[in-house]
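From the pipeline queue, job 12 of 40. The input is one protein chain; the requested action is below.

Action: predict structure.
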Amino acid sequence: MTTFERWSVWLTSAVVAGTGFVYAWMKYLLVPVDAFAVVNHPLQPLVLKLHIVSAPLLVFVIGMITLRHVWPHYRALVPRGRRSGIVVALMTVPMILTGYLVQVITNVGWLLAIVVAHLLLGIVYAVGLVLHQVAVRMTASSPQPSVAEPDEVPSVVSPK
């Protein structure tokens, strides 16, 4: 991964996870001062908007690194960080899907199930991403087979 890609993943993941966790805390754990309040905290709508606006950036970044990092490492059976990387990769699609469904589902029962799923998937994604970084750093000192990134692959000119 390039430095830009690495920073993009960490920055967008931190913003989306941070706003998601703060919003969940505000919505589900805080008690409003006023019994007739629509929100539990005055910043709750802003935090939700930041979460919704930053999430598509995370989706874009995940797509960006999938072709240059995730798929080549998966195909080459790179052992360093493999399990944690697979967990993070498997969490992304259902996390994104439930994030969109939370905004459009109106049935209370289904909405509760989707919200719980989205929260759990978000937690597993965030923890998995940190564990992936730890696993990669811990095994960085041992020699590992590397996978050439697409821009590092030497071009081969076929003779005519």
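Job complete. Residues 62 and 73 are 15 Å apart (CA to CA).
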